[in-house]
Prior knowledge:
The structure is a single chain. This protein folds into 2 domains: 138 residues, Aminopeptidase (3-Layer(aba) Sandwich), CATH 3.40.630; 163 residues, Response regulator (Rossmann fold), CATH 3.40.50. 25% of the residues lie in helices and 24% in strands. The protein is built from 9 helices and 15 strands. The strands form 3 sheets. An 8-stranded mixed sheet has the order 1-2-3-4-5-6-8-7. Strands 10-9-11-12-15 form a 5-stranded parallel sheet. α1 crosses α3. The longest helix has 16 residues. The chain is elongated and about 75 Å long. The protein starts with 12 loop residues before the first strand and ends in a 14-residue tail after the last helix. Coenzyme A binds next to α2, β5, α4, β6 and α5.
Amino acid sequence: xxxxxxxxxxxxxxxxxxxxxxxxxxxxxxxxxxxxxxxxxxxxxxxxxxxxxxxxxxxxxxxxxxxxxxxxxxxxxxxxxxxxxxxxxxxxxxxxxxxxxxxxxxxxxxxxxxxxxxxxxxxxxxxxxxxxxxxxxxxxxxxxxxxxxxxxxxxxxxxxxxxxxxxxxxxxxxxxxxxxxxxxxxxxxxxxxxxxxxxxxxxxxxxxxxxxxxxxxxxxxxxxxxxxxxxxxxxxxxxxxxxxxxxxxxxxxxxxxxxxxxxxxxxxxxxxxxxxxxxxxxxxxxxxxxxxxxxxxxxxxxxxxxxxxxxxxxxxxxxxxxxxxxxxxxxxxxxxxxxxxxxxxxxxxxxxxxxxxxx
Length: 359
Ligand SMILES: CC(C)(COP(=O)(O)OP(=O)(O)OC[C@H]1O[C@@H](n2cnc3c(N)ncnc32)[C@H](O)[C@@H]1OP(=O)(O)O)[C@@H](O)C(=O)NCCC(=O)NCCS
């Protein structure tokens, strides 16, 4: 925050476009309601559906409320296009409302001719402004089919907070104060972080029903730059979790496993292995649902996988790492996670219950 409590991010910007045109970016104000309504009226049904989940432009009172977002503690920006011989008009809006827990909820619209640059540009400014004001995360409800919005949020390292089936929608969060989102400051439930392709894990509903808060990390979209753990830095989501599930496969899954074991050694990790090969034995020496079958490793470790499997070539896994086969019943998986979370929650120095290996 700059001196006097004013965000350092420049709130008024002039961007020159070819043909003597200019885009003016400035804070949204209540008097922008008619201009924003014109922007919405210019959208095709498909875009209205992506923005509002209905093919109708929102009513006047909705637009008036949005334009007054600053009066409720939130913040908005508009982009105004100025062309020779035409009055200026609003071609984009981006705003966040403050949520009761201090996070923000964002919405954004860019007129089709300005797409391809203005969305990410406005979002970056909105995120920076929110971060400078101490807003930890920005949330958004996004249709799964909204590839541009999903792409834009994934590029900023979003995590999936929740899902809806009809219509297929995700609630995601991006970090504003830091590059990675963070858990809510206050919580009463155990926290489960799942590393899973696409941010959707088969057992997350069962885990929520069993009392976990679940965040799903869909993995890097382009390059690995948005994942702190893969850059070798502690991840606030992983460090604040009671259990981590690594359901990513292949090299990415192995790299995440190694990174979490190194960077967050006190947080129990459950690695979901690929389904057993046909004819193989999914069970083994471990408890029901866990993958086993290999000889025991050195003290304090578990064998890393069945001999000859790609997992076997990884280095030995600490006792805090459990393995479970994909395809194991969700209830069994969640039972394992509960046991791991209980162990994590144990005060330091207190011995393990009989029959359970120590950390
Ligand atoms: C969503 C919206 C704001 C994005 O703004 P935009 O200017 O179109 O953004 P871009 O075209 O630059 O694309 C956004 C991201 O998606 C990626 N992308 C673009 N087209 C894509 C496609 N067809 N498939 C996958 N990703 C795509 C871009 O690479 C970009 O990623 P980046 O941020 O890493 O550069 C804009 O398209 C819009 O107003 N859509 C209708 C309303 C809406 O959906 N609002 C969001 C609901 S809250």
